[in-house]
Amino acid sequence: MENVLRPLIVVGGSVVLTLLVGWLADLMLRRADARHPETPLWGLLRRCRVALLLVLGAALLRGAFRHADLQVVRDHAWGIGQILTLTLIAASAWLVVRIATAVVESSYARYATTTRDPARVRRVRTQVTLIQRVVIAVVGVVAVAAMLLSFPAMRTVGASMLASAGVLGIVAGIAAQSTLGNLFAGLQIAFGDMVRIGDTVVVDGEWGTVEEITLTFLAVRTWDERRITMPVSYFTSKPFENWSRGGVQMTGTVFFHLDHSAPVPEMREKIRDILRECPAWDGRDWSLAVTDTTPTTMQVRAVVTAKDADDVWTVRCAVREQLIAWLCDHHPYALPRISMAQAVEPPGTHTPREEVARTGRG
C-alpha cells in the first residue's frame, strides 16, 4: 500500500501545491489590476500564469521525485532528474521573458496614453521593441548555456573552453563582424532616434513606411504593399530621407510644362479654388510660380502643404488632375504644342522653287 500512496502523495502533492500557488498568485494579480486600472501591468502579468505553473511544478517534482521510492525512479533517477532540470531552466527562461515583455508593454502603453507627440511615441515604441528583443536574446543564450552546463560532460570540458575563449572570440569576431555591425547599428538606431517605427522614409528611390525594426534588419512597407528588408547598418552608413523627422507636416510640389501664353494669374485663382475644396490640404500655405523656361515651354511650379506624407500625395494628385482638366476645357492654347510651321530662310538665300520661278525654267 505504501508503494502506491507514496508516489501519489509526491506527484499529487506537487500538482496540488502548484495549482494552489498559481491560483493565489492569479487572485492577487486580479485584485491588484482592479485597484490600479490606470496601469495595464497587473493584467499583463496574469498572462504569465502558465509559465509560473510550469516553473513551480518542475521545481517541486525536481526536488521530490526521489521520494516516490519506485523501482523505475531508482533505475532512471539521473535521466528523470535531468529532464526535470532542463524543463525547469526552459520554464524559468519563458517566465522571465513573459515578465519582461509585460513590463515593457505596460511602460509603453502608459507613455502612449500620456504623450500627445506622435514622434515621441514612435521613438519609445522603437526603443522598447528593441529592448524586448535584446532581453529575449540574452535570456535565451543564458538558458541554453545553463542547459548545456547541466550535463557533466560539458562541465568537464568547461576549463578547456575557457582557455581557448580568447582565440575563439577573435575568430568569431572576424567571422561575424557584419552581424555584430548590424547589432550595434540596431541599438544606435533605437537610442539615436535616427528612424522610428511608423516613420515615412525614402530609401533607394522607394517611398514607404518603417514597419519593423529588429536588431539586424529593418522592414519598409511601400505604398503598393511591398516589403523592403534592409540591414540596419544601411541606415547608419548611407544617407536616406526621413519625412517624419522633425514633424510629420509636409510640403509638396507639382510641376507643369505649359506654353508661354498660359494664363498664370488665372491659374493661381483656380488652384486656390481647388485647394479650398480638397479635404487633404491643411490650409497652411500654397503658391504658384514660373520657375523655368525653354524655347518651347515654360515650367510652372505649384507648392502645397498637408499634415502628413499621405495627405500631401493626395493634394498633389488633386491639383495636377484638376488643373490640367481646367486648362483643357478653358485654355487649351496653354498646353504645350509642337510647332509644325515651315522654317524661315535667312535673308539672301533662295529655295530651289524660288530659283525656278525667277529664271523661268521648269
Written overview of the protein:
With 362 residues, the protein is an alpha+beta fold. It folds into 3 domains: 2-114, no CATH class; 179-242, Roll (SH3 type barrels), CATH 2.30.30.60; 250-334, Alpha-Beta Plaits, CATH 3.30.70.100. 59% of the residues lie in helices and 15% in strands. The chain is built from 14 helices and 8 strands. The protein has helices spanning 2-35, 41-45, 49-64, 71-75, 77-114, 118-149, 152-156, 158-163, 165-175, 177-192, 234-237, 264-276, 309-330, 352-359; strands at residues 200-203, 206-213, 217-222, 227-231, 241-242, 250-258, 281-293, 298-306. Strands 4-3-2-1-5 form a 5-stranded antiparallel β-sheet. It has a 3-stranded antiparallel β-sheet with strand order 6-8-7, covered by helices on one side. A hairpin with a 3-residue loop joins strand 2 and strand 3. Helix 3 packs antiparallel against helix 5 (77-114) and helix 5 runs antiparallel to helix 6 (118-149). The radius of gyration is 36 Å and the shape is elongated. The N and C termini lie far apart (138 Å). 19% of the residues are buried.
